[in-house]
Amino acid sequence: MFTDEKWSSSKNWFIAAVFWIIIGMSMGLLTATKQIWPELLNNRWFTYGHVRSAHVMLVIYAWLSMAYVGSMFYMIPKLAKTKVYSEKMGNFALVFYNIVILEGFFALLLGQTEVIEYGEFPLWVDVQLLVAIGLVAYNLFKTVGRRQEKMLYVSLWYFLGSLLWLPLTWIVGNFPAQWIPSGVQQGLMGWFLGHNAIGLWMTTVGVGQIYYLLPKLTGRPLYSHQLSMIGFWAIATFYVWNGPHHLMNGPIPGWISKAGVIPSIVLLIPVWAVLANFWGTMKGSWSQTRTSVPLRFTVAGTIFYLFACLQGPLQALPSVSSVIKFTHWTVGHAHMGPFGAFSFTSFAAIYYILPKIVGREMFSKRAMEAHFWFSTVGFLVFAFSLWIAGVVQGFAWIEGVPFLQTVLMMEPYVQGRAIGGTMMYVAQFFLAWNMYKTIKLAKLEKKQQAQQQAASA
Amino acid sequence: MERKPSAVLIVALILWTFGVAGTVILPLFDQEINSATASGELRNYQEDSAEARGREIYVQNGCQTCHTQFVRALPADTNQNLGPVTKGGDYKYDLPHLLGSNRTGPDLMWVGLKYNEDWQRQHLIDPQSTSPGTIMPSFDYLSNQELDDLVAYLMSLKPTEERLEEYKKELNDAKSNSN
Question: PROSITE patterns this protein is in (chain B) (predicted)?
């Protein structure tokens, strides 16, 4: 029933991922539009809260996570110089994972939510998703176990760590709330997942992708192995402590706040180590970004990663937090890592890997260019609208401007966000169309080749 | 270690465990967040009471995606008259917690102090009629029973009288100090 074809897992996970980026971002665009026309599509199922939750959960656990798994089903065996342990199991896990995501999507539209951000699926969905993630991790750990290459390249460190951390973090964040002291304690556990879904899954797999892609795309070796080790262990040490900064200045004791804030600031160290390594590898290759779209996506991803990681520690300072927390700023920041940095590197991974799997170039170079520019310009419009809005809003609250008036003040920025968001959304159709065409043509060409061979034989 | 995946995994697991211990396990032993305040006790709703059902409706309709229940000792919150600064113990009976992370709409920690039942009901059915220009969608799709329950929950979001007095006194002190 499930195919055993070489690289089929990687390819199929990518296809599913791109399907979900369209659905997930539709939900995002609907969320943005509802902030302009609140009565748009307003009913029991598509009420604002449901749509927003569905957007967050789908772009992270459907689009981005599936693109990550697709990348790992290619990069891990390549780095280990071996085959995927079981392509069949990889394809089965994909079908199962997609069923679970669908369940979660409908559960959210029906109003079943665990409330925890980045962990909103209800418990019955969480358990199944854990099994699906477990299957993927098992398959990939087994693949590493059968490696022919003894040295573990840094990307493998990141992938191994992430595949261990995600299921564990998922368990802590989704732990049945009835079994723990409720209230703030549950908030801390929820934010442990909320921040580490980013820190120990999105960031670490994404950085692993970049470490893989940069040397391949530029044809130059990694700048420094030592530096990559420092970066990895520093992320592993400090990221996991970041959760409490989400409740900063709030109802948590000072010591918990400090335990969350200090590591958040220390994170500047690994970020710098990682980026110095990326850009060191880029030395002499910058001009290639003009012609190579995958390389341009990767490098743009590293730049957005830098800015996300400069904002992060800054926002973790209590004084900065006191102005921008709860405003539109946070929404802008929350999109920079998952979209600007790691969706970009995943786009690069798709554009690099897919041609290798199907045996033909991407169908349209111009569609790739359009994908890049719509994504980048759209994101910048989107994000700057929100950042400016957040600062204005934050100071208006401090001035004591009546709340409703601050909402009215935000109107132009909210519209700017929707315009940028529309561009980001449109961009993904170039990706989907290009992928579809490439795969279809590759099949056709293979068929023709086979016919020609049969004819000449 | 550069040749042993198991070693990488073990160290990765240990570092992760430290983080869990520090930010999740240790807080379990903190009295401040694990013993209810008097105002926190007010939120210990009886099973199947109107307030408890209303809270469910609040969660099911995603109110927490736009509204925080989280008052900080900061100018942004005090100047918006959000009421007494919240303490860990105020949330002791919050299951699931509704702290929130975004104020697309105003904070609702003590919203029961601000409006009466009629206003709340009208605002839920037709937000524009009470707050012109608001971007809150209407919840006119809720049944009468659901609206009653939700209003009952919102009206229950109040501190105790003592807490309120204390807060008002602090406000006055702050004012007379600044004059």
Answer: CYTC (PS51007)
Among B12, B70, B139, whose Cβ lies nearest the Cβ of A164?
B12
Shortest distance, CA B47 to any CA of chain A (angstroms): 14
Same domain, B146 and B173: yes
Please count the structural domains in chain B. 2
8 Å CB contact of B20 and A184 = no
Is B16 in contact with A200 (Cβ distance < 8 A)?
yes
SS3 B32: helix
Residues across chain B: 179
The domain limits of chain A are 1-151
Task: Tell me how far apart the alpha carbons of residues B3 and A152 are, in angstroms, rounded to a whole number.
Answer: 6
Out of B15, B87, B98, the one facing A237 most closely (by C-beta) is B15
Residues B15 and B46 in one domain: no
- List chain A pLDDT tens, one digit each, 457 residues: 789 999 999 999 999 999 999 999 999 999 999 999 999 999 999 999 999 999 999 999 999 999 999 999 999 999 999 999 999 999 999 999 999 999 999 999 999 999 999 999 999 999 999 999 999 999 999 999 999 999 999 999 999 999 999 999 999 999 988 888 889 999 999 999 999 999 999 999 999 999 999 999 999 999 999 999 999 999 999 999 999 999 988 899 889 999 999 999 999 999 999 999 999 999 999 999 999 999 999 999 999 999 999 999 999 999 999 999 999 999 999 999 999 999 999 999 999 999 999 999 999 999 999 999 999 999 999 999 999 999 999 999 999 999 999 999 999 999 999 999 999 999 999 999 999 999 999 999 999 999 999 998 7
B173 and B98 together in one domain: yes
Shared domain for B160 and B90, answered yes or no, is yes
Do B41 and B68 fall within a single domain? yes
Q: Which pTM value belongs to this model?
A: 0.96
- A150 CB neighbours in chain B (<8 A) are 3
Note the ipTM here: 0.95
Q: From residue B153, how far is each of A182, A355, A427, B112, B158 by CA, in Å? A: 18, 57, 44, 9, 10
Task: Output the domain CATH number for residue B45.
Answer: 1.10.760.10
Taking an 8 Å cut-off on Cβ atoms, the answer to whether B18 and A182 are in contact is no
Same domain for B92 and B25: no
Reduce the secondary structure of A357-389 to three states and give it as a string.
HHCCCCCCHHHHHHHHHHHHHHHHHHHHHHHHH
Whether B64 and A394 lie within 8 Å, measured CB to CB: no
- Smallest CA–CA separation between A447 and chain B, in Å? 41
Question: Are residues B22 and B63 located together in one domain of the fold?
Answer: no
Q: Do B47 and B29 belong together in one domain? A: no
